[in-house]
Design a protein that fits this description.
The protein is of the alpha/beta class and about 325 residues long. The chain contains twelve helices and nine strands. The protein folds into three domains: about 140 residues, P-loop containing nucleotide triphosphate hydrolases (Rossmann fold); about 80 residues, no CATH class; about 50 residues. A hairpin with a 4-residue loop joins strand 6 and strand 7.
């Protein structure tokens, strides 16, 4: 009787699906990177660290891995994303003083001095022991003891100013930047597990299509695109789609990278487009670095470092 491994599966038709040696090596590297996220998460949950700041490319399993790890641990935790004000942060910590508080992709929060000051107080002192957090207005002074932890997840690094540096010094930091080859290997490994009523062979076909189309768009791979593509396949499989699943996936990826971005773009055209985006962002957000960086990531899909390279290009050319 033959056996299969986690990287090998035999379909109903008798076809054997198996990861290549290159994919297995990339998958091992990716799992090692996810282990670092798991360890950082546990270090906060078990009170070895007061906080952690995880930064890296979107769609690379940062949030999923943090959630998965916290679900396995016997510790209370709460999760927030989207926009939050400094007072909203204060109230959240006050309502959950012993929890691990996960803040996910709240870019604007870390660009506000009042929020950074609250985080400095919440993260100062020994892990697991109470730290006094205060909030003072003209009419009142509020305070509470926070003994929990904070895990911040972002696509953008912390800013470089005295307050941001002070917060950074209080947390364990981790940069999560897997390569496209690692993401592709992980996609294929997940495909071999099947998805709901979609067979491993069909999942792999969809995953390969997503990989090829994403590369044709000159965009970085995103694990969320794979899961959305499997759902598009199911819509077509169940006879509920007007167009093929390939058309649905392709249209979704096109929207992901922007309607004005050509599918086959040369390096010169890409640099020209990025310089134009950089110029517009510096005009729109001259004093708001966090918002400027977040918009760059959304529009271009790369780190803020490339934004400032394009800005230097413009300065040298007098643009």
């Amino acid at each position: 009787m033959s056996t299969t491994t986690s990287s090998e599966i035999i379909t109903q038709s008798g076809r054997t699906l198996i990861l290549s040696e290159e994919d297995r090596a990339c998958l091992d590297e990716f799992e090692a990177m996810l282990d670092l996220i798991r360890d950082r998460t546990r270090s906060v949950a078990d009170r070895y660290q007061a906080g952690a700041y995880l930064v890296g490319r979107p769609g690379s399993s940062k949030t999923f891995t943090v959630h998965e790890t916290l679900e396995r641990l016997d510790t209370p935790w709460t999760y927030r994303n989207s926009r939050m004000s400094p007072m909203g942060l204060y109230c959240l910590l006050e309502e959950h003083p012993e929890h691990v508080v996960v803040l996910d992709d709240i870019h604007t929060l870390f660009g506000q001095d009042a929020a950074l000051q609250i985080l400095m107080a919440a993260l100062g002192g020994r892990p697991g022991q109470g730290r006094t957090v205060t909030y003072t207005t003209r009419d009142e002074r509020k305070s509470f003891e926070f003994s929990g932890g904070v895990i911040a997840i972002s696509n953008l690094p912390l800013g470089r100013d005295p307050l941001a540096d002070a917060v950074a010094s209080r947390v364990a930091r981790l940069e999560h930047e897997p390569s496209d080859e690692m993401i592709a290997a992980f996609m294929r490994s997940q495909a071999l597990k099947g998805f709901e009523d979609v067979s491993p062979g069909e999942c792999l076909e969809v995953a390969e299509f997503v990989i090829a189309e994403t590369r044709a768009c000159d965009h970085r791979l995103d694990l969320r695109a794979m899961n959305k593509a499997w759902q598009d396949y199911r819509l077509d499989l169940h006879g509920k789609a007007n167009r093929t699943w390939q058309d649905l996936v392709r249209s979704s990826l096109k929207r992901l990278v922007g309607e004005d971005r050509p599918r086959h773009e040369g390096r010169a055209a890409r640099l020209a487009r990025e310089r134009k985006v950089a110029q517009e962002l510096f005009e729109r957000f001259p004093d708001d670095k966090a918002q400027r960086d977040a918009e760059w990531n959304r529009l271009v899909g790369s780190s803020p470092d490339s934004l400032y390279r394009r800005k230097r290009d413009l300065d040298r050319s007098g643009g």
